[in-house]
Every structure is written in C-alpha cells, then in structure tokens.
Amino acid sequence: MKLAADTGYWTALEKLVAENRIIIERPKGSRHPRFPEMIYPLDYGFLDGTNSNDGAEADIWRGTLPGNAITGAVCTVDLVKRDSEVKILIGCTPDEIAVIDEFYNTGPYMKGLTIIR
C-alpha cells in the first residue's frame, strides 16, 4: 500500500462521488456471479452515470465509515479480463483497506496497487 499526497486527483474523485449516486450491486459477503469462489469482503458497486475503461461505470468499494469521504483508490490489473481499472475506496477504515488490498493480491489473476489518501 502507498500513501498519496493530497492533489487535484482526490478533489476530482470527490466531485464524481458527490454528483453521482452510489449503487451497491454486490453487498458484503456476496459471491461473484461468474466466479462463486470470489466473495466480496465489503460492499462493492459503482457510481451511476459514470464511465470507466471497461465501458461500465466507475467501480467503488464502500466501507463502514459514515459519509462519503474518499479514503483511497486501488489500481487493478485483471489477467482474466485483460484490463486495468481504478477502484474508488469510499468510507473505508485502515483495516478495511487492508482487506481490499488482500482481496486483489492473494490470487494469481488479479493484482492491485492500493493508494491510501
């Protein structure tokens, strides 16, 4: 995990989160629809009305802290989908960020670089 300085990047992400509704499509404990062995350790979803590299909406992880403060981001590489994306961490505690980091970095097909705000 890396600690990032406060830059305009975080302000831009805050604007996206403030202006677009958070949709949780995979609640904590749910299984991935195509890979049932993959269980989501926190709420996972997207920002409605946004776009990402994969043609879908911008992905988010939602932690247990109140409000919608951005606590970090994860830059991911998925060797199965053959893509790379940024996942926004919203309201995640340090322990939750560690769990997300482990989620991306324990298997052979997905890797992530976690950036803590």
TrEMBL record:
InterPro entries: Pyrophosphatase_sf. It comes from the Bacteria. This is Inorganic pyrophosphatase.
